[in-house]
Design brief:
- The protein has 170 residues and is α/β, with parallel strands linked by helices.
- It contains 5 helices and 7 strands, in the order ββαβαβαβαββα.
- The chain has a 7-stranded mixed β-sheet.
- A hairpin with a 5-residue loop joins β6 and β7.
- The longest helix has 20 residues.
Length: 170
């Protein structure tokens, strides 16, 4: 029921750079924002692939899907510069989202605004938390679980429930 903080993030989809702005995406319908700790780590890769497999169902329910991370890592495990992190997210997006939805790098301020900090050692990284945000900007559901699989099931159920309620009221 809380209002989701608006944010803008630079990301990649289909190998192309883009700007994601939550308030703009909400004009089209509900938005599923999933925070994940870091690209190219086993859990994040599994989660992103699973979201990709179900992407058409989110689209059918009228939802926009976006994956966001505060931790864009290079192959050697070090943190990337802004430019390198976009290149990495581009590779990650192509390989694991199969270009079905965008992946964006969020700032430490966004991680803080959503209260999804990974831990004290990595406060600018996000933990694994998914949000379903209604077009009015209110959070319909939030779910935190270090294991990736429940996120897809729970967010899709919340989007479908939101759509049913909306269709029922019209």
């Amino acid at each position: 029921g809380a209002k989701a903080p608006d944010f803008t993030a630079t990301g990649m989809k289909g190998g192309k750079q883009f700007q994601f702005k939550l308030s703009d995406a909400l004009k089209k319908g509900p938005v599923v924002v999933f925070f994940f700790p870091a690209a190219f780590t086993p859990g994040c890769t599994a989660e992103t692939k699973a979201f990709s497999d179900m992407a058409d169902e989110y689209t059918a329910a009228g939802a926009t899907l976006v994956g966001v991370t505060g931790g864009a890592k290079l192959a050697d495990g070090t943190m990337a510069s802004a430019k390198d992190s976009l290149v990495r997210l581009g590779e990650f997006s192509k390989e694991h989202c199969r270009d079905k939805f965008p992946i964006a790098a969020v700032t430490a301020d966004t991680v803080k605004a959503y209260d999804v900090s990974f831990n004290e050692k990595r406060p600018d990284w996000s933990n694994r938390t998914s949000y379903v945000i209604a077009p009015n900007g209110k959070v319909v559901m939030s779910h935190t679980d270090p294991l990736p699989n429940s996120h897809i099931e729970k967010t899709l159920a919340a989007v479908k429930a939101w759509k049913e309620a909306k269709d029922h009221n019209h």
